[in-house]
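Annex B.
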Amino acid sequence: MRIKFNVFGKVMSVQRKNEEWLLFRESETSMRVRIYDVVIPSDLPAESLAQYLADIFHEQASEYHTGVKCC
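DUF7661 domain-containing protein: predicted structure tokens.
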């Protein structure tokens, strides 16, 4: 399972693998780069991922990019 998000203007995806959530930065050329310095709790339900990402990356908010949206 992979879910894409627009996180304050940056496209990211979260993938479930081996009972863990893995976070990736998506490029415009469809390449993904793993983000290792953000750990998503393995017991976090999928429906809470957007809020979790908003809490982690809230410093990147701007008047043009005000939230986290599922893509």
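Residues 2-70 form one domain. The chain has one domain: 2-70. Further annotation is deferred to the next reporting cycle.
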